[in-house]
Amino acid sequence: MSRILHNRMRASLKKSTQWTVVDKRAVAFSVWTGRSVLLHKPIDTSHVQRRRYGMLVARAVRGVLKIRYLLLGGAVGGGMTLNKKYSEWKDGLPDMGWLNELLPDNDKWDQFTTTLIEAKEKISDQLQIGVPLTLSVQIDPRLRDMGIARASELREWLSQRYEDAVAAAAVTNSSSLVHHISAEQPAKIVNNLQSKPQPVAQRSIDDNSSYEKRVHVLQEEVLALQARYQRELQRLEQENRELRQQNMLLRQGRQPSTRKMKRSLIDMYSAVLDELSGWDAGETDRLPRVVVVGDQSAGKTSVLEMIAQARIFPRGAGEMCTRAPVKVTLSEGPYHVAQFRDSAREFDLNKESDLADLRKEVELRMRNSVRGGRTVSSEVISMAVKGPGLHRMVLVDLPGVISTQTVDMASDTRDAIKQMTMKYMDNPNAIILCIQDGSVDAERSNVTDLVSSCDPSGKRTIFVLTKVDLAEENLANPNRIRRILEGKLFPMKALGYYAVVTGRSRKDDSIQNIREYEERFFRSSKLFKDGLVTPSQVTTRNLSLAVADCFWRMVRASVEQQADAFKAMRFNLETEWKNTFPRQRELDRDELFERARAELLDQSAELSAVAANVWELRLQHALWQAAAERVFGNIYLPAAATAHADVDKFNTAVDIKLREWAEAELPTTSIRAGREALREEFTDLMSRAQDSDPVYEPVKKEAVEEALRRHQWEDRAQDVLRVLQLNALQDRCVSSRQDWDAAVTLMDSAVKERLDLVNKELKDLTGPGLKERWLYWQASSDEQARRGEVRGELERLGVARPALAYDEVVAVRDNLRRRGIDVDNDYIRETWKPVYLRNFLLRAQTRARDCRKSFYLYSQQNGNGKECCEVVMFWRVQQTLRTTANALRQQIGNREANRLDRELREVLDEMAADPELKKKLLSGRRVELAEELKRVRQVQEKLEEFIEALNKEK
Q1: Cβ of 897: how many Cβ atoms within 10 Å?
Q2: Distance (Å, whole) CA 402 – CA 413
Q3: Cα–Cα dist 200/198, whole Å
Q4: CA dist 134 to 29, 125, 332, Å?
Q5: Residues paired with 326 in a beta bridge
Q6: What is the DSSP letter of 295?
Q7: Per DSSP, what are the bridge partners of residue 435?
Q8: pLDDT at 784
Q9: What does the alpha-carbon distance between residue 541 and residue 308 come to, in Å, rounded to a whole number?
Q10: 571: Cα within 13 Å, side-chain hemisphere
Q11: Residues of the chain with confidence (pLDDT) below 70
Q12: CA angle 139, 141, 143 (to 5 degrees)
């Protein structure tokens, strides 16, 4: 039964599956054909069609919307990008707001335009009908008729100008038409507004050829000028782009990258010459430069000013102006400015105020260079001048050669100028610009013989004849000027001969006025008309071109050779350093000074770290050394001599003398002792410094000495010390055994030192003793023997008073006379002083040793005992010096060490600015070799940099 049910279910399931497949296919066929496969009749497919159309429409709408979104997104993104680009472009444009101040607004511009149009229409109408002009102003009939006539002349003049321009263009564009040019070609264009037109002149074919050449030259000059300004415009545009880029970076908070500024060739070459200035390098300093030499007032400075196109030098009426060599570096630049090598200020040469300041600065530098009674100096004043059209070169203006010295000049002025001139001309690569005054007799020249001796072949000499206008007026024979410019009058030879005019003896003439006067003079000069000189031999413009060309030819021919010479010198110096100082760095004077400065300041800072007990011991020692003589000579010995073993009298005298000492002299002595202690401590700190280079010691010692000389203790410190010292001296009670022993020790040592001095004095007076005579074979002189006899007689007398009575002196003299020794009373008293002092000190030394054990007795009497009063006096002095030492130590730690450090820094700063002092203190082969090696390296590096740039320019 179950099997039957299972089979029926399988059949039913299979049948249903088959029908399901058939139904799906039928439905699909019905949809596309419109008929039912199963029922064989049409079925309703409207809802299916609607569904199909709806889906197609939905798909189309979706595609359209997708395209719109794409377009909309692209438009929005492109608009934002375009807006951003526009904003960046607008920010990069320069600020043109200044035009708003110059141009009128729209209303005024429209009103002005309307007025012009109306005026044009009225004028044209009036002219066409021949009616007089009747604008808003009533014109005089005579003026009206004259205006009509002038208008007709203006029309004719414009027509003539147009015809002239057309004719000139035809001649320029077609040289073949020159031979067929019309005879009606105008000779020149005149102003027909002032006169009637001139008749047209006939021209020959030669005139047309010269006219064509002139036009061709003008065209070339215009093209060259246009190319130059085009290059300048491109450079300015490039700089403008870089500035805009830096501005954008700064706005974004980013720093622009710092790039080394490119220098011109002439600036690089001038830097090399600056390195060599003032350095006697021997054969290595042979770099080319233009040396301007000539007699005084021959016009050297004027020629240089014409080349530099500015009145940059001071002028004097008949006196020497150039007192030192002036090195002028000329280079081309967009602005006409001047600047000194050691100054950041730029002088605008187009402003008269800056020119006046520049001349004053040059004069001031010259006067500063000739201090000490000198008239001329070899110190070089270096200046750079830049401007449009300047030729690149380096010129050195030297003082003029003189033949006679005046009374206000130094005695060696003439020889100094001659030696300086010869030194610069002896350079085989120097171009000698020999300036000769044309207004004076050639036989009065002093400089031509010097030039001829330095450059006999004339291979590097350029001769310049100045003041030709005056020469032409004064000379009866112009042929003499021709002979000079042909090199046939002077025995010297030259590369070229030039004639220039550098002024009209007017101080206020500008360079432009002088140049125009020079060109007018040579155009109308007899020298030109008679053919005595060629055009290339005149004007400072041609001279400047020739000098610049000669200068650069000389530079290119010799600079590499000079670089090789410096390279070989550097190798030799480095080899010497390695062999002589193998383990030391190559430090020049500046580096050595900075190291000594740092080390000295470190040691100065250690003053505040010195222990208090060290300071007090040193101060006490210094105080006693300063006060010992005063204590013995003015207090102790006079009080003991006055007392004569009277204790009360001794104490009274000591009190008076101690107070006088404390009020008058002790504070000043204490300050002086404090300064000495400060010096000793500083010296000890320097001596204890480890790894200190001995080459620093002269610098450190000089700086410390100068700082201590300047260091002054505060004035109020003396008043404070005076009060402390008076209070300390009032205490007469020794409170402890330690203080007592210290006072006894001080007294014993002081007496012993004094006793040694007295014994030495007696030995010098009386000669050697028995021991020296028998062991060292020393003998006494007659005077010493006589002094010895007097000393022996005085000691046998046994007197303990500081002064002898008259009877005692007579007794000693009589005893000596019996032995054949004749002396007077003064001789005896003079000998008695050291004898008495020795005996007194011996007794004082004994009393000091006895008092060492008397402190108990002194303490039992509460300081009222009369024994050992000398120990109490020394204790009072010692206590006062301790108090003073403590006060000085506090003053040093709180104030004086810092003040000394500041003064030491000031001294070091002054020494750093004094090269002569550094050269004096830092000397020796090590320093000189390092200095020379440094300078040779600098010159070689700059020469190599210059050669690299020169090769790139080629």
Answers
A1: 20
A2: 9
A3: 6
A4: 102, 11, 57
A5: 381, 397
A6: B
A7: 294, 464
A8: 86
A9: 11
A10: 6
A11: 1-213, 215-216, 219-235, 237-242, 244-263, 277-285, 316-320, 372, 441-444, 474-478, 504-507, 527-532, 690, 862-866, 954
A12: 70
What pLDDT shows up at residue 539?
A: 86
Inter-helix orientation angle 715-730/869-891, to 10°: 150
- Asked if 379 and 324 count as a contact pair (C-beta separation under 8 A), the reply is yes
DSSP 40-61: SSB---HHHHHHHHHHHHHHHH
Which tokens sit at 841? 């000190």
Which phi and psi (to 5°) does residue 581 adopt? -125, 75
489: left (phi over 0), alpha (psi -120 to 50) or beta: alpha
Written as six digits, the tokens of 856 are: 């108990």
The candidate with the shortest Cα–Cα distance to 268, out of 257, 279, 260, is 260
324 bridge partner residues: none
Q: Are 873 and 654 in contact (CB under 8 A)?
A: yes
Sheet containing strand 337-340, strands side by side: 347-348, 337-340, 381-387, 326-332, 393-397, 290-294, 431-437, 461-466, 496-499
Q: Please give the pLDDT value at position 509.
A: 77
Instruction: Compute the half-sphere exposure of residue 660: CA atoms within 13 Å on the CB side of its CA.
Output: 10
Q: Write the single-letter amino acid at 581.
A: F
And the tokens for 608? 């505040």
Task: Check residue 611 and give left, alpha or beta (phi > 0: left; psi -120 to 50: alpha).
Answer: beta
Q: Could you tell me the CA-to-CA distances from 773 to 762, 777, 780, 792, 876 in Å, in that order? A: 16, 5, 8, 17, 44
Nearest to 359 by CA among 540, 516, 504, 507: 507
Question: What's the CA gap between 732 and 736, in Å, rounded?
Answer: 12
Alpha-helical runs (H) found in 426-539: 447-454, 468-474, 479-485, 511-524, 526-529
The C-alpha atoms of residue 241 and residue 229 are separated, in whole angstroms, by: 18
Cβ-Cβ contacts under 8 Å for 72 (sequence gap 6 or more): none
* Tokens describing residue 930: 């390092």
The single-letter DSSP state of residue 394 is E
Look at the block and give the residue holding tokens 């001794």: 650
Which residues fall within 8 angstroms of residue 862, CB to CB, at 6 or more apart? Answer: 733
Q: Are the CB atoms for 879 and 731 separated by under 8 Å?
A: yes
* Contacts made by residues 747-752, CB under 8 angstroms, sequence distance 24+: 747/844, 747/848, 747/870, 747/871, 747/874, 748/845, 748/848, 748/849, 750/628, 750/631, 750/632, 750/874, 751/841, 751/844, 751/845, 751/848, 752/845
Cα dist from 420 to 265, 283, 378, 459, 734, whole Å: 28, 17, 7, 21, 81
Long-range contacts of 557-560 (CB under 8 A, 24+ apart): 558/286, 558/287, 558/288, 558/429, 559/287, 559/288, 559/943, 559/946, 559/947, 559/950, 560/947
Tokens 């020159």: give the residue. 178
Residue 832 near residue 791 (C-beta atoms within 8 A): no
Dig out the tokens for 829 from the structure: 């008293």
Identity at 815, one-letter amino acid code: N
Which residue is it, tokens 């206008």?
A: 469
Which residue in the block uniquely carries the two structure tokens 């929005």?
A: 76
Cα dihedral: 178, 182, 184, 189 (round 10): -30
Q: Are 329 and 383 in contact (CB under 8 A)?
A: yes
The number of C-alpha atoms within 13 Å of 602 and in the hemisphere containing its C-beta is: 11
Residue 478 exposed, middle or buried by CB count within 10 Å (0-12, 13-18, 19+)? middle
Instruction: Name residue 108's amino acid.
Output: K
H-helix or E-strand spanning residue 748: helix 737-766
What is the rounded distance in angstroms from the CA atom of residue 226 to the CA atom of residue 853? 113
Q: What is the pLDDT of residue 200?
A: 42
What is the distance between the alpha carbons of residues 451 and 400, in angstroms, rounded to a whole number? 13
